[in-house]
Amino acid sequence: MNLVEVVTHVNYWAVIVAALSTFVVGSLWYSSLLFGKKWMILNDFTEDSLKEGVYPMPVIFGSSFIASLFAAFSLAMFLGSTGNFGIGVFSGFMIALFWISTARLNTILFEQQKFSLFLIHAGYDLVSYMVMGAIVGAWR
User: Fold this and answer.
1) Which of 39, 76, 77, 124 has a 20 to 30 A CA-CA distance from 10?
2) Which stretches are transmembrane (predicted)?
């Protein structure tokens, strides 16, 4: 299968929904119900410091959505026309664990950050990519 065939087999609605799913996972993962308070402590954030951040929230959320679209699109191309729910979940797991988490680990190590911060972020990536994989894999 060539690149044109791969791109034409992508379900763009699935890509959009998969990209949006990262916001659902993130809103739960980084909420006070799960890891939000610990994440704030590890980053020395306060409610006020988050409001006064370097980037305005529309820029953060807009850029994050575009990045998630790229990730979901590349995952859909990676799965190709033979993907399904199980392969999607497994691919998301493998990508998050062996590509993204290893890169995050290097950043954490060289920036001398706390390992628990790595675990929070890597856990989010793992769940997000498995959900994205499930969506683009099942929605053919």
Assistant:
1) 124
2) 12-36, 57-79, 85-105, 117-139
